[in-house]
Design brief:
The chain is α+β, with helices and mostly antiparallel strands and about 450 residues long. The protein contains 15 helices and 14 strands. The strands form three sheets. Strands 3-4-5-6-7-8-9 form a seven-stranded mixed sheet, with helices on both faces. Helix 5 packs antiparallel against helix 6, helix 6 packs across helix 8 and helix 6 packs across helix 9. The longest helix is centred in the first third of the chain and has 27 residues. The structure holds 3'-phosphate-adenosine-5'-phosphate sulfate. It comes from Gossypium hirsutum (Upland cotton).
Length: about 450
């Protein structure tokens, strides 16, 4: 939502009354992550078809918004957003990510409660679940429906080949079922769903459409359907990340973080503690229990956060959005730095040395996925560092949405040499100097960049 969106703010006056989550000196306990793979998923195709039918009927009886009402709402949003070039893209992208978060929550719930027969491995052995393909198909379908297939180009993590193999039939039907289950809810989110259930070929087509190669010209969406797969299958943090890239520049980013805890201190605990604590603590506002969707457009100087949408209601834009801002802490001794959970994804020993030389004193906050970017943008932590092993090439979909949201929230994101990340070279962040540094403030960022070289010389990376 851009800064000139005053009429929307007036429509939601409580937005102005919200206080921003600010930083304080909360101590973080050392992180403990117990990796337990959770099980999976049952099929109730018949019931799902029935549900689709019932919802379609309800829609006809105007318990759901008619397309003209949706169109009016969209026009209102678009006109309220004034001259913002990306208002429609933002509207659709946020709602699509909201839908994807809802899908992921259901699938993660099933993983937690059932047996583990449907967590699949990609060629690179990373676990991939039905959620990855289902989110990709859903977002691809929504974007294509909203903007027209010919106008939408998507670069996304999952390829269609492994899902098209004859021995993937069971998996494909689970994906089709999950996608339909999600798309039937589209009217709740203020979007148009399909007129009839999608078949396997429709779903494969939607996934396969995400075959953009990116590059320096034109515009394309970069999508990580489930970022932080390990966190997802472990019942912990993960994110849905969608960004629009135009002529090599990220112009819009949306980051869904379905398990982002109500209290930032809980970020360092395994998700199962959140579930226990949520049951014990009465929530003052059901919509802000846990989870959020963050978003920003380039040059707006603002980043926003919505609660996850409850599917039993109609999403009324801007859905209780509040502005977010990075932390004002610039004293390294008070700053919290985030890094990946797995040391195979980022050298913990290198960041420990760097942190020490900069004067960081707190324990690192190890969190799965782009939720780390969300923590910086929300002001819940001050620094994010990732130093992958030499030879690993960072992918653009793992950083695009998070980067723009931090920048518009007032922060700085560069590589370890202090240069901007380059999203114009296709799938990879080509030319990345050693690692990624994101900070709430320029002062902390400068200190870290200055210390990188010395720490690098002493390290074995
Ligand atoms: N070897 C290696 N080094 C660095 N990065 C890698 C590596 N392998 C994968 N990836 C990418 O990192 C994504 C996971 O990053 P995270 O920050 O979530 O790491 S962690 O799971 O918390 O350890 C992960 O995202 P997902 O695949 O969506 O989980 C990958 O895109």
């Amino acid at each position: 939502m851009p800064s000139n969106c005053t009429s929307l703010v007036f429509r939601a006056p409580h937005v102005l009354g919200q206080t921003r989550i600010t930083n304080n000196t909360n101590k973080l306990t050392p992180t403990i992550h117990v990796g337990t793979c959770f099980p999976w998923y049952g099929k109730k195709t018949h019931q799902k078809k029935k549900l689709f039918h019932i919802v379609s009927q309800l829609k006809c009886r105007q318990n759901y918004p008619s397309s003209s009402v949706m169109e009016d709402e969209r026009n209102l949003v678009v006109s309220s957003l004034g001259p913002d070039k990306y208002s429609k893209e933002l509207d659709v992208a946020v709602k699509a990510v909201q839908m994807a978060c809802s899908l992921c929550q259901k699938v993660q719930g099933s993983l937690i409660s059932k047996t583990n027969s449907q967590i699949h491995s990609k060629d690179d052995n990373s676990p991939v679940t039905v959620a990855d393909w289902s989110v990709q198909a859903t977002i691809s379908w929504i974007l294509s429906k909203s903007f027209g297939c010919r106008n939408v180009s998507i670069l996304a993590e999952e390829d269609v080949e492994s899902l098209s193999k004859p021995d993937s039939k069971g998996l494909l039907s689970a994906v089709v079922e999950t996608v339909n289950d999600c798309l039937v809810q589209a009217p709740h989110f203020g979007l148009q769903g399909p007129e009839k259930l999608l078949g396997s070929s429709d779903v494969l087509e939607a996934i396969g459409r995400c075959n953009s190669e990116g590059g320096p010209t034109g515009s394309f969406w970069a999508l990580d359907p489930v970022d932080g797969t390990l966190g997802f299958v472990r019942g912990d943090q993960y994110a849905v990340a969608l960004a629009l890239i135009e002529d090599g520049e990220v112009v819009l980013g949306v980051l869904g973080c379905p398990n982002y805890p109500k209290k930032k201190e809980w970020l360092s605990y395994h998700h199962r503690y959140h579930r226990i604590i949520s049951k014990l603590t009465p929530t003052t506002s059901e919509s802000w229990d846990k989870g959020c969707v963050l978003y920003a457009t380039k040059g707006s100087g603002k980043a926003w956060m919505q609660p996850l949408h409850q599917t039993n209601k109609l999403l009324a834009w801007p859905n209780s959005a509040i502005p977010i801002r990075v932390s004002a802490i610039d004293d390294p001794a008070l700053a919290t730095f985030c890094e990946p959970v797995e040391k195979s994804n980022s050298s913990h020993s290198f960041t420990a040395g760097l942190a020490h030389s900069v004067g960081l004193r707190k324990q690192p906050l190890r969190v799965y996925s782009m939720v780390k970017y969300a923590a910086i943008a929300r002001g819940d932590a001050e620094i994010f560092m990732k130093f992958a092993r030499t030879g690993y090439k960072e992918k653009i979909w793992d950083h695009a949405a998070g980067m723009i949201i931090i920048q518009e929230a007032g922060g700085v994101v560069t590589d370890a040499g202090g240069s901007p990340l380059d999203f114009s070279k296709g799938t990879f962040l080509e030319g990345l100097d050693r690692g990624i540094i994101a900070c709430g403030g320029a002062k902390l960022h400068e200190r870290i960049i200055k210390s990188v070289d010395a720490s690098w010389k002493c390290s074995s990376l």
